[in-house]
């Protein structure tokens, strides 16, 4: 009888539900907050939530690259703050050249380019610490978290660079448009999230570099033996994470029309939570950009929903921490269930 009915087992309903857990959680949160939070589903609230989600998603995409490669980046929030302060410093004070007795003020496109290069450079330093000096990713990026935040504080003595509108005489106007502008009625920040998502999915799925990132995170030794340049891959993912953080720093400063050195504090939690909720394994070797963007929606809806309900900021931190722990537990359970399903399929073949 066993031979007559022998075949591959059907899909496991529990496994399918686990794979769809992020989408299910998002639907549940939207339904709950639509009842508990007044005006949650108003157009203005949805646009505001989408703007916040875009920031978490961009950070989460960079974090996904790092985690899939087997690392972690705790410095993204500090790079956000540092990037905003660099932009504010260049707009308000300019680049002082004492040897020539002049102050150089750059146009907004040049300022954006400088900030993006700075963020990428900081990420590259993280990568070099991890690869060349063999510092554990957790320690390397934890150190950079403090170093970048300290430099941001030193740049202004802990003060804010206000009123980043620039001056027509100096040729540096237009910075607020990045955060406040829109195209086809959709804010620029959402378009930026879409562009990052499309580019990142293509890089992950359609290029050798994307395959190498998965290979390094899945089995670093095997990847090395197969000829993959491990160090280059790792440096790239940290540079990309720094680049994503710099983009977010520019957007936030533009939205606020001001730069504050404390901007981005604890945002590394949002980035990690978005990636993990989206199915990225902290063990490396598994993750998806689409899942991370869904995870960012969960974090954004959860955060803004709690704010609308008047939940204390301290409780918000507690809940986010519990969400991360729960996501890791569920991810581990899913991995075990998948392993059992694979073994059952092989036994039935």
UniProtKB/TrEMBL annotation:
<keyword id="KW-1133">Transmembrane helix</keyword>
<keyword id="KW-0813">Transport</keyword>
<protein>
    <submittedName>
        <fullName>Permease component of ribose/xylose/arabinose/galactoside ABC-type transporters</fullName>
    </submittedName>
</protein>
<feature type="transmembrane region" description="Helical">
    <location>
        <begin position="103"/>
        <end position="123"/>
    </location>
</feature>
<feature type="transmembrane region" description="Helical">
    <location>
        <begin position="235"/>
        <end position="258"/>
    </location>
</feature>
<dbReference type="Pfam" id="PF02653">
    <property type="entry name" value="BPD_transp_2"/>
</dbReference>
<dbReference type="GO" id="GO:0022857">
    <property type="term" value="F:transmembrane transporter activity"/>
</dbReference>
<keyword id="KW-0812">Transmembrane</keyword>
<feature type="transmembrane region" description="Helical">
    <location>
        <begin position="175"/>
        <end position="204"/>
    </location>
</feature>
<keyword id="KW-0997">Cell inner membrane</keyword>
<keyword id="KW-0472">Membrane</keyword>
<keyword id="KW-1003">Cell membrane</keyword>
<feature type="transmembrane region" description="Helical">
    <location>
        <begin position="79"/>
        <end position="97"/>
    </location>
</feature>
<feature type="transmembrane region" description="Helical">
    <location>
        <begin position="53"/>
        <end position="72"/>
    </location>
</feature>
<dbReference type="GO" id="GO:0005886">
    <property type="term" value="C:plasma membrane"/>
</dbReference>
<dbReference type="InterPro" id="IPR001851">
    <property type="entry name" value="ABC_transp_permease"/>
</dbReference>
<feature type="transmembrane region" description="Helical">
    <location>
        <begin position="20"/>
        <end position="41"/>
    </location>
</feature>
<feature type="transmembrane region" description="Helical">
    <location>
        <begin position="135"/>
        <end position="155"/>
    </location>
</feature>
